[in-house]
Each structure stands twice: as C-alpha cells, then as structure tokens.
Amino acid sequence: MPDTAQWDGRTYYGRAQLKPAPFNNALVGSYVFLAGLSGAAQVLATALDYAAISDAEPVVRHGRLLSLLAPIIGTVCLICDLHTPKRFYNMLRLVKTTSPMSLGSWALVAFSGASAISAAPLLVRAGWRQDSAVAGWLQGLSRVARIPAALAGGVLATYTASLFSATSAPLWAAGAKGLAVRFAAASVASAASALRLVARSGRRRRDLDSLAVAGLAIELGATLASDHAQQQAGVRQTPSSRDIAGVAVPLVLFLASDFLPRRAQAISQVAAAAALTGSLLMRIGVIKDGEQSAAQPNVSLRLAQPDNLPRR
Q: Which residue, 114, 145, 153, 255, has most beta carbons within 10 Å?
C-alpha cells in the first residue's frame, strides 16, 4: 500500500480485531474500588500511627478496620467474577514478575494476612484485651505487621491500573500512565473520604478534607491528561464528561465547605459520600469503556498504526 494511502477504519466484514475482557463490570469494578480504598486506608493508618499524633488514634483504628474490606468483600467479588473458585488459588502456584495479575494476587494475599494481624487487637474479645499477656502479644504482632501491610497496601491500591494497561484494550493501553495516577489518587481520596465519614475530631476532619481535596485534584488532572492522550491516539473522540463530573462534584463541595462555615460539616459529609460514589463509578466506567474500545475494530486498528503506538 502506498505511504500516502490512509486507512478508512473499515475491517473485514466489520468484525472486531480483539476480544473484549470477559469481566463482570460491577464485580470487578467493586473489587478494584475496595482494593484501592483498603490499601490507601492501611497506608494512611500506618503513617499516622508512626507519626504519633495524639488525637489521631480513632482515625488509625478506623483505617485498620477499613483495610479489611478488600480481604473480606473484595476477595468475594473477585472470586465470583472468576466463576471457578480454584482459578484464584491456581494463580498462587508461582510468582511471575512480568504478570501484573500474578503480582496482584500475591499482593492481595500478603495484604490480607498482614492487615488481619495489624487489626487483631481491635477484633478480639474484650476479655482477651484486658488480659495483659494476651494484649501484649497481640500488640507485638500488630506492630510487626504494620509496615508489610502498608507496603502491600500501596501495591494493592495501584496494581489494577497496570493490570488493565498490560492488555490490548485500546483505551487502557493508550492512557497507561494517566490511568495509574488516576487510580492512585482516587484510592487516596476515597480512603480519606471514608475516614472522614467516621472521624469525630474536628482537627482530623479538616486534615482528611485537605487530603481528599489533594487526591481529587490530582485525579482530575490525571483524568484530563489521560483523555488527551487517548484522543491523540484516536481511541477517544471527546473527553469523558462522566469521569470529570465524578471528580469535579465532590471537589467543588469540599472547597465550598470552607466558604460556608455554618454548613461545613454537612457539606463535607456529602462531599465525602460523593467522592466514594464517584470513585466506584469511575472504576466501573473505565472497565466498561475499555471493553467497548476492544470491540470496535476502527479503534483498535487505529491504535495499532505506527504513529499511534503508546510509548512506555
């Protein structure tokens, strides 16, 4: 074909070049959301714990408990999406450093065990906590597990972006870097928002509000950059108004609470709930859009053109 010829987007009988990922969007999106929230909550709880801030103990406690959402609920969502439970433990037969799925499976296992141990003093019966020997033993185990839990939490909060970007779905492959930043920032914002909903200290509430605002602002910037990269690659025509609104609405509400002191508490609560909802819907939407892009040959073949191949 001459160099001047331009491919017009048509394919043989209009058939798709790629096979979309067979995900259940709601189940996998919920798992990705809970993995991000739990991982970031564990990181925040460990950071506050080692900072030894006097009135941060309730936030640390709630962060430890929130970290159990991914091991308990998220794992159920993941296994249900696999349809055959043995597929999950079959992935644990080896460690493949080039596979985000293999590394993510092991990160989930490590995070689950370390988070359960770090939260053990909060979960045992009150009578056992009053026993000095048992309490000392549990606290010692909890202190040992905190750093591994935080490290595994950081991986768990972000690896799903690498998992999606490693596939051939055009929308995920074209905006790999932006997707990683979006997932990381959304994880921090959702963890801060969840902790904000249960925080009682006024000072800690303000700190969590600030952290949520920072996460949402970074996520908004990464969303715009990702949309631009996808448009440049020809896999998206217009910016994703759904994702932008899902970040902008809670961000505006958090900022508005500073200018309405009498309503600040209620507005911040609504903003935190909106941030959590937007984070969940963003994950589900990203999965759905990626699958749709894989099913459209005019999109997948356009990305395969030499000028549009993403640079990693």
A: 153
Counting every residue written for the chain, the total comes to 312
For the chain, give the percent of residues with pLDDT over 90.
Answer: 33
pLDDT tens-digit map of 102-119? 888 888 999 999 999 998
Q: Is the pLDDT of residue 3 over 60?
A: no
- The pLDDT, as a whole number, for residue 1 is 42
CB 194 within 8 A of CB 272: yes
* DSSP tag of 70: I
- Among all chains, which residue has been given the structure tokens 């999109």? 299
Handedness of CA 243, 245, 246, 252 (dihedral sign): positive
Distance, in Å, from the CA atom of 74 to the CA atom of 159, rounded to the nearest integer, reads 15
pLDDT in tens, 271-298: 999 999 999 999 999 998 888 888 777 7
d(CA 41, CA 44): 5
Let me know if 244 is exposed, middle or buried by CB neighbors in 10 A (0-12, 13-18, 19+): middle
Residue 71 per-residue DSSP state: I
CA dist list (Å): 214 to 163, 207, 274, 292: 25, 11, 15, 31
| Model pTM score | 0.85
Count CB-CB contacts under 10 A for residue 133: 8
263-268: Cβ within 8 A, 24+ apart: 265/205, 268/196, 268/205, 268/209
Tell which phi-psi region holds residue 10, choosing left (phi > 0), alpha (psi between -120 and 50) or beta.
beta
Q: Which two tokens stand for residue 300?
A: 């997948």
Q: In whole angstroms, how far apart are CA 118 and each of 12, 55, 60, 136, 191?
A: 56, 19, 11, 13, 17
Give whichever of 50-59, 81-90, 296-305 has the largest mean pLDDT: 50-59
Q: How far apart, in whole angstroms, are the C-alpha atoms of residue 304 and residue 287?
A: 20
